[in-house]
Design brief:
This protein has one domain. It starts with a helix and ends with a helix. Helices cover about 90% and strands about 0% of the residues. It is mainly α and about 70 residues long. The model has no long low-confidence stretch (mean pLDDT about 75).
Length: about 70
């Protein structure tokens, strides 16, 4: 029984780490990469803002998604 609980806990820790990495990557993309690409492509500020908001929401969902399933 203890071994089963240890395996479940270890699996949840790995899943939490993965979701944290995905969320961090999306946040990084929204803060740095999107404005850089938008400036290069000549996109308007409103489009850049909308893309950043969408990526930040996705980042938040990625991080909260695993902890909400526990």
């Amino acid at each position: 029984m203890k071994q089963e609980l240890a395996n479940i806990t270890a699996g949840q820790s790995i899943n939490d780490t993965g979701s944290m990495l995905i969320g961090t990557g999306l946040a990084l993309a929204s803060m740095i990469l999107i404005p850089a690409f938008a400036g290069r492509l000549g996109l308007g500020d409103s489009v850049v803002g909308a893309l950043r908001i969408a990526l930040m929401k996705a980042s938040s969902k990625a991080i909260r998604g695993r902890s909400a399933q526990k």
